[in-house]
Amino acid sequence: MKLNTNSNVYTIVYATIVVIIVAVLLALVSQVLSPRQAANVKLDQQKQMLVALNQELGADPAALYESLVRDTIDSENTKPGIFRFEVDGATKYVLRLHGAGLWGGIGGYIALDEDKNTIFGINFNHESETPGLGALIVEEPFRSQFIGKHIRNAEGDIVSVVVLKKGNQAENGEEQVDAVSGATITSTGVSDMLKANLCDEYAAFLAIENEKMSNCENEEMEVEDVIAEN
Amino acid sequence: MLSQKTKDTLLGPLNANNPVVVQVLGICSALAVTVQLKPALVMGIAVTIIVAMANVIVSLIRNTIPMRIRIIIQLVVVAALVTLVSEVLKAFAYDVAMQLSVYLGLIITNCILMGRLEAFAMTNNAWDSFLDGLGNGFGYAIILVIVAFFRELLGSGALLGYQIIPDSWYAAGYENCGMMMMPAMALILVGCIIWAHRSINKEEK
């Protein structure tokens, strides 16, 4: 007897079976592969930090990472995002960055010298910026501009580094790097990400004793000052 | 070695029956991934593999599929395959998975897949469907690579990320064509390819 493949019962049973088979298959694959995927994600993050620290990745990035990393510094309002490294005998801090580009999220790692001011190196990643335009932020020519820049102004306040179109001058005396031409929104995204992360999220970590927390938190400080004076 | 029908199935989509320039399918992704040559190549390979696999699976179950929900079943097969490939890549070739990022998901929406499943795999046996998938995948990849070649060369002065236009040209006043970076230029280039293709193939019709 030939099955009537057009009957309602057949259609419903068929759809149910297909959905169950596909669901079980995908769940199974996801379950089996997830440890490997998690390991890959972790290794990728370690590689990105090593790039931010201007290290050659070599054959075994994981071992290199282990040999350089000292500890992670977490505080209440920063998720595990601060790592302490020791490179050639000097302490370097690596901070995780996250922000928004044109099409999706952007992120990265910034490596600071022990003075929590000079940029030792930086690395960016992105989810879906335009190849050939916004995606150029991950390339070496854009990244290397940041090396040696300072995230504090002459007074020692944290002001971040701004990304500006060639020829423009930063308004508040921040140090600046050239934007990727043709990728204004991604470049602004990088600039905003640095500002938001450095001035806000990591302000408590970056603050040096006996000094104002950061330029971005002036208002709060002033309120406290007023209270103190009263 | 190959019968005439097999040859037509495999090689037809490369030229006379090309999915992009003759059937005008898959245009949307052709605009998105052709700014540079590398993502275009990777996308071409990924689509080829997925069309071929989806064609085989749908062809194997074609006699059991209820007619009224056949499109949904085809879609489920494609979506499951794409998810599967993306999971496997994330586990075993993380760098490639990152390279593909959004494009991998975009494959589901590629009309070439649904087009081939509906037009070919539903009525042909598994082996022919496999060849048809390969042929259409390559046909798609060829057009992507041609468009990306011109867009990257004229738009960035590079190919596969390596600079081609010498610095001395830039010093002499040569400028990269910013228009090439726009999705609209991909459409215009595809139009030019269709024009050239039609004029060459005119006598045969």
List the uncertain runs of chain B. Answer: none
The quaternary structure here is heterodimer
Number of strands of chain B: 2
Largest interface: A-B, 27 and 32 residues
Largest sheet of chain A, in brief, is: 5 strands, antiparallel
Domain count of chain B, please report it.
Answer: 1
- Please state the structural category of chain A: alpha+beta
Q: How many alpha or pi helices of chain B?
A: 9
Order of helices and strands of chain A: HHEEEEEHEEHHH
What is the rounded Rg of chain A? 24 Å
Helix content of chain A: 40-55%
Low-confidence stretches of chain A: 217-230
Give the CA-CA distance, first to last residue of chain A: 95 Å
- Bin the helical content of chain B: 55-70%
Question: Topology, pairings included?
Answer:
The complex is a heterodimer of chains A (230) and B (205).
Chain A: H1 8-52, H2 61-68, E1 69-72, E2 82-87, E3 90-100, E4 105-112, E5 119-126, H3 140-144, E6 161-164, E7 175-178, H4 184-201, H5 203-206, H6 218-229
Parallel strand pairs in A: 6-7
Antiparallel strand pairs in A: 1-2, 2-3, 3-4, 4-5
Helix pairs in contact in A: 1-2
Chain B: H1 4-11, H2 27-32, H3 37-60, H4 70-92, H5 94-106, H6 111-121, H7 126-156, E1 158-159, E2 162-163, H8 167-171, H9 183-200
Antiparallel strand pairs in B: 1-2
Helix pairs in contact in B: 1-7, 3-4, 3-5, 3-6, 3-7, 4-5, 4-6, 6-7, 7-9
